[in-house]
Amino acid sequence: MIYAMSDIHGCLDALKEKMEQVDLSPDNRMIFLGDYIDYGPDSGGVLRYLYDLWQKEGNDKVVMLKGNHEAMLLEWIDEFKNPVTP
User: Does the pTM exceed 0.70?
Assistant: First the structure.
């Protein structure tokens, strides 16, 4: 079975609650479709939880795609590090 989840937006408690319903037995996979950060109270906690899950289960079981909110953060970091001057 393939599970998919998106738009977590910093809601760690809701993520943990939903993950209780996921069975990552040998033939199953979990695909996260992005938008892990912003809006909710614990974007950092969500990222840590997903990273730990990926470390535990590996690339074959846990796939994480970058959403537009992660892309915006990475663009902001890049612009912050390399400001464009007029």
Answer: yes
